[in-house]
Inverse folding.
């Protein structure tokens, strides 16, 4: 038996884990939520990320592939604040054309 549905509910966690790319202006990456800054994007370069985990207003992010040495790659993985109250601090790209 098929049920008619009016709409689907999706949590922020599920939604953000499936989006293609997120970016953030004035990006700071922390070792843990509210922890120590391990990377700061002072030049506001375009650095695309995936979200792998959420804890409240914080998101654990991983840098997408690029021209980085393996050791250098680690400094781009960590935590950033993705929202502050009801304000979304990240830019979200749901789809890309390949």
């Amino acid at each position: 038996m098929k049920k008619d549905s009016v709409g689907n509910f999706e949590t922020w966690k599920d939604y953000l884990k499936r989006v293609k790319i997120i970016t953030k202006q004035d990006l700071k990456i922390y070792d843990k939520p509210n922890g120590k800054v391990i990377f700061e994007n002072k030049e506001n370069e375009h650095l695309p990320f995936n979200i792998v985990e959420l804890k409240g207003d914080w998101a654990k992010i991983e840098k997408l592939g690029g021209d980085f040495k393996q050791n250098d790659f680690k400094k781009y993985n960590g935590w950033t604040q993705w929202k502050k109250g009801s304000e979304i601090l990240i830019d979200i790209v749901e789809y890309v054309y390949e």
Q: What stands out?
A: The chain has two helices and nine strands. The mean pLDDT is 82. Residues 24 and 90 are 5 Å apart (CA to CA).
